[in-house]
Amino acid sequence: MAIRRRTHWLTLPTLALLITVLVGACSGPDGASEDTRPAEGDRSSGALVIIGGGLSADNEEVYRAILDRRAGDGPLCVIPTAGASPESSMESAVGRIDRWGGEGTARGLLLHLEEPEAADLPATAEAIRECSGYFFTGGVQSRILDYFLPEGRETPAYTALLERFHAGAVVSGSSAGAAMMSDPMIAGGSSEGAFEDGLALDADEDGVRIRPGMGFISGATFDQHFLARGRIGRLLIAVAGPSGAEWGAGIDEDTALILEQGRARVAGASGVVMVDGRGVSPVEHPAEVRGLTVELVGPGDEVDLVTFSVSPAPDRTPLGAARDAGFDVVGEELFERWAFLHLLQALGADERESWSTELHGFRIELRKLPGFRAVASDVEGVEGTPLGLSVGPFEVNLAPL
């Protein structure tokens, strides 16, 4: 796959300014809380804090999840490569992180495609190695790949970043900064396009666009703004198709999926949809899919990434019929904002064993599996659904009409 690369040569004044920004000193936080970060070498690799976009400045739980997983005494470095206005998005993120970690906790690394040559500078790699962790801002995830891995080439900046991750430094990111973490990576496309055209493994094809990602985790893929934007269709197709992803996670807004030591935990305001494709059954028709497993996990829930078993947060109670909003969807309504969230709430609260609809030449069916759970807290969450809603597992089957 060819990757377009913008080539703007650095002038000497610009180069000097860039090096100053990258390697400038950063004072430690004043009056910060007790440091609970792991020492260097305590972990084989760092944690991933994968945020579904729309991160509120007040979401202390998610910011603490990032700050508590730093490794070393360096700053938490904000990398705005994905943004259309990288400097402003960098400054905004630095301010938000400093609010929770203390002034001087975060440092901005102004790495962007206007100056792609900086990815090969020793000063850039050195600045990256000084960081205790990383936060990638939102925007367009392909910009991150085009900067750190232009045409698939590993730059010194990428090598330094990967070294720090394997030494225990946390890697976090929101929206595009979340999508880029996996390999393969969802680069774009809609749920409707997923069902109409399938996977787009080439930049010129229609459908769900797939390309190699940054590879902090392989064999998985992440989608963001997930429930808010009705993206269930494109994640199902990405996992079911020949993308290389065995499983995927659709992370809603203002919510994070924290991956470390073979487990995942949800934090924040909404939920995460886990899609497991490891048990997909072979079928004769190339457009047919049988045996995908889907479940919604809520804040405080944990997932064993080996067995995919879910441990709900301890304060959850069964979702009774009184919580059923009588919600149902037909056809393309499935891809409307928040529709899949409300559907899962309804299926969890009543006695239906299955649900199905027809769209874009397919029948899609959700069928409850043994061990099915439907629990939530008594606190109201997004869109009038209960906070901590945790429903599943479902088997998902797709069949052409």
List the helices and strands and how they pair.
Elements: H1 12-23, E1 48-51, H2 60-67, E2 76-79, H3 86-101, E3 106-108, H4 122-129, E4 133-136, H5 141-148, H6 156-166, E5 170-174, H7 176-179, E6 182-183, E7 185-188, H8 191-197, E8 199-200, E9 208-211, E10 217-218, E11 220-224, H9 232-240, E12 247-251, E13 255-260, E14 263-268, E15 272-276, E16 289-297, E17 302-304, E18 310-311, E19 317-318, H10 339-349, E20 354-359, E21 362-376, E22 390-400
Parallel strand pairs: 1-5, 2-3, 2-4, 4-5, 6-10, 8-9, 11-12
Antiparallel strand pairs: 1-13, 7-9, 12-15, 13-14, 14-17, 15-16, 16-22, 17-18, 19-21, 20-21, 21-22
Q: What would you say this structure looks like, in words?
A:
- With 401 residues, the chain is α/β, with parallel strands linked by helices.
- It folds into two domains: 46-276, Rossmann fold; 289-400, no CATH class.
- It has ten helices and 22 strands.
- The chain has helices at residues 12-23, 60-67, 86-101, 122-129, 141-148, 156-166, 176-179, 191-197, 232-240, 339-349; strands spanning 48-51, 76-79, 106-108, 133-136, 170-174, 182-183, 185-188, 199-200, 208-211, 217-218, 220-224, 247-251, 255-260, 263-268, 272-276, 289-297, 302-304, 310-311, 317-318, 354-359, 362-376, 390-400.
- Strands 3-2-4-5-1-13-14-17-18 form a nine-stranded mixed β-sheet. Strands 11, 12, 15, 16, 19, 20, 21 and 22 form an eight-stranded mixed β-sheet that branches. A three-stranded mixed β-sheet has the order 7-9-8.
- The longest helix is centred in the first third of the chain and has 16 residues, at 86-101.
- The two termini are 33 Å apart.
- The model is unreliable at 1-43 (pLDDT under 50).
